[in-house]
Specification:
The complex is a heterodimer of chains A (288) and B (496). Chain A has 288 residues and is mainly α. The longest helix of chain A has 37 residues. Chain B has 3 domains: 115 residues, Periplasmic binding protein-like II (D-Maltodextrin-Binding Protein, domain 2); 112 residues, Dipeptide-binding Protein, domain 1; 202 residues, Dipeptide-binding Protein, Domain 3 (Dipeptide-binding Protein, domain 3). Chain B is globular and about 70 Å long. About 2% of the residues of chain B have low confidence. The chains are: A mainly alpha (288), B alpha+beta (496).
Amino acid sequence: MSEIGLARRDNLWSAALGSRSFMIGAVLTGIFVLAALISFVWTPYGAAAQDIPNKLKPPSSAHWLGTDHFGRDTLSMIMVGARTSIAVALIAVGLGAAIGTPLGLAAAARRGSLLDEVIMRGNDLVFAFPALLIAILITAVFGPGAVNAIIAIGIFNIPVFARLSRGAALSLWQREFVMSARVAGKGAVRISAEHILPNILNTLIVQATIQFSLGILAEAALAYVGLGTQPPTPSWGKMLSDAQTMIALAPHVALVPGLAIVLTVLGVNLMGDGLRDIFDPQLRRSRG
Amino acid sequence: MRTSLVVLAVAGALIMSTALTPAYAQARTDVRVGLVLEPPNLDPTAGAAAAIDEVVYANIFEGLTRFDANGAIIPALAESWEISGDGLTYTFHLHSGVKFHDGTGFDAEDVKFSFDRARAEGSVNAQKALFADIASVDAVDPRTVRITLSRPNGNFLFNLAWGDAVIVAPESAETNATKPVGTGPFAFIEWQQGDHVDIARNPDYWGTPVRLEKATFKFIGDPTAAFAAMMAEDLDVFPNFAAPETLSQFASDPRFEVVVGSTEGETILAMNNSKPPLDNPKVREAIAHAIDRQAIIDGAMFGYGTPIGTHFAPHHPDYVDLTAISGYDPEKSKALLAEAGITDLTLSLKLPPVEGYARRGGEIIAQQLAAIGIKTETTNLEWAQWLEQVFTGRDFDLTIVSHTEPLDIGIYARGDYYFQYKSEAFNQIMADLGNETGPAERSELFKAAQTRIAEDFANGFLFQLAKAGVQNAKLKGMWVNAPTQATDLTGVYWEE
């Protein structure tokens, strides 16, 4: 761990508490993460339990967020849906970062080499396809389902992390502490792992939060078109698509999952925005 | 000054509009029809898909007889017929002056060609059973056809009314799939795949000319898009509207009329009768008792539908209400499963792309089966995939589909039909029915057939599909009921 990263850590907490966008984002995200966690042990009703005589009921004391067209409790579905959304987005982004970052670091370490060219042009290739199109392609070929949605979203995250880590790493390779490590005889892999990675971690974390919110949107979009999470597992996107023809009959059925998506994405984005400010002392000073 | 100008402008506009109104008041002569499914081809003699007949039946193609709006059999290309005393010889007298759309003449040879083609060895006709009793077809003279049967068939005129029994010309039979040429009051114009089929009035039609000049069939599978298209008046009629939850909105809008009628669509949870453990009647019985029909009708169809206990239309005079045989009783289901020694059962549920009965119904049935301990693996398929995997490939445990052909209980006698129900007793009933012409005896046999499949729990019998259509309030002459799969536009007109 090099000195640049360590020097800042102490200030981070106070900076975090001082950043309004980070706090709002963290609270919003926290609510949904909490809902997802609680859903493992408790939901008001079974998320898949149908009660058709009580379908499309508006919010009441029995069903806080009303019921859907099968009489399922919307709150329970939102809670379990949060679990699906978060899990899919988290694993997918993790997958993208875990593959993309080493690729980017390798490309930076061998700048201008054939390896660099192959990795980066390969990334360009994946990048050239619109993200959702890749996802639809993959789920169309391998069949719909949460696992394939994770793989699909993960794949379009790879070039994002590869490019970012290569760009950030390139400038570090010129720095003195890296030079001295090279003089000390450390190899490219060790330098990348011990000196480069810790110093680009902040950038990666900020990017990861942004990708995470995109992942939630992508999961919802795939489920909406019927290619993501399959029923009876609740998913916000599926809830929205089920609800759209019932908007006039029972607006809450569409409104609730729609709001859940908007608020979560907003929360994660605000948090990412705040994190960037916190991690960047210069920006912090100029705003503070 | 300014106010008076505005008043003047408004007055001017009013005068203009009243002056122009008569020009617009003339009744329209085109119609835009919304259909949920796009046909895979346009040849009704070479495909099982109901969507084919929904475009071409009575509009482009005609048979010797046809169904009218109430399901009665009326003459079409045959103006009259005689049946011999033994019920074996049918002599049809054909209309004169009938021409195919490509200008070729229609005569007895075309009838012979069509039926010989349909019943030939390598025929791709989806309902070859309709022609099974034909021994020979002879063109006596250009306007007379004699059909000899190998055994009496009380249903023969009914069989000839099916879309699969329409008359095609030898010159165009091979290309009907993409460029249908029939004798009907409408001629095919174009098929924009994935979007629409256009047909236009046939000026040389032999019968009463239709009042419409042009009709467009638009294929809109997505219920939301269908709703938007109707609301925006991009469509004039949607005879089988796929989103029953929105019907109340149309009903309260004076621009539209909601028409609810009956169909021949027995909606069933089809079970693969030859695949273990579904080959065990106890397991099928357990599944049948796990189904709460009313929940499915309310949850998937918003109340539109009539529960059925067998594969027979409730509006048919010979229908017997057998719903009690497979009444909702999950406790009995569990006991039956235990009796059959089934503990951990996962079944595949392959659903065609019909939002209402299949997709929503599937979610409800999956829940009802879960309640008795049967897990399901749901796969949503497109129609082509469904036909390939389920209908042809029989690679399924359960599926939900609506059989919209009229009086089609005979499919249970075809051992190789996709659900592969095999019963000697049932086949015997069907054979007796084929030999029987007495109305009372036939009625008894139909009832026996219904009871047989209900007691064998051949499939899960869910409900009779309702025909819930939405149309422009000024459009008249559409069928209220659907005695066969068709969108008959021959009597459709706009009210002035």
